[in-house]
What does this fold into?
Amino acid sequence: QLVNVVANYPKVDGIKTYFITGSHDETHFLNGGFKMGGEIAERRKDLIYLGPNQSMFYAGKAKVPILIRHPGGGCSKSLSYKAQEAINKIDEKNKPKVLLMGHFHKSYCMYYNDIYALLVPCLVDQTEFMKVNDLQNIVGAVFLDLYVDKKGNIEYFNYDEMRFTDK
It folds into this structure.
């Protein structure tokens, strides 16, 4: 997995990717003490590891707070439910402008309680566990265009989803 990410994750001069790790990466740590995120960042200086499961990232000159989360738990029938629940639990003092949530292998975007919330698709194929439990799996990526004022308020938000349908 490490060799694959280091060799194949797209590299574009001048662009850095900030990332967290989640439950699949945690398995390597639990089984043998291997810290996947740190090793990836050590081998690719354009990939910036922010930590396991959750981190606040401050984007651009205006330092727009973006909360990146990989929660636990299962999927809900409503795509908005998990993001709404997460937003409802956020402390007002640490409120992000954007919430990016992995783990659910879904793709969804909404605006709720002054936060743009996205369920971010995954980069893995549907597992046997998902097939047996009739869990949909969205493989893809999202691209965000944010235009903010000098105070960090989002004036324009554009969400562009790219689904990867070919294996």
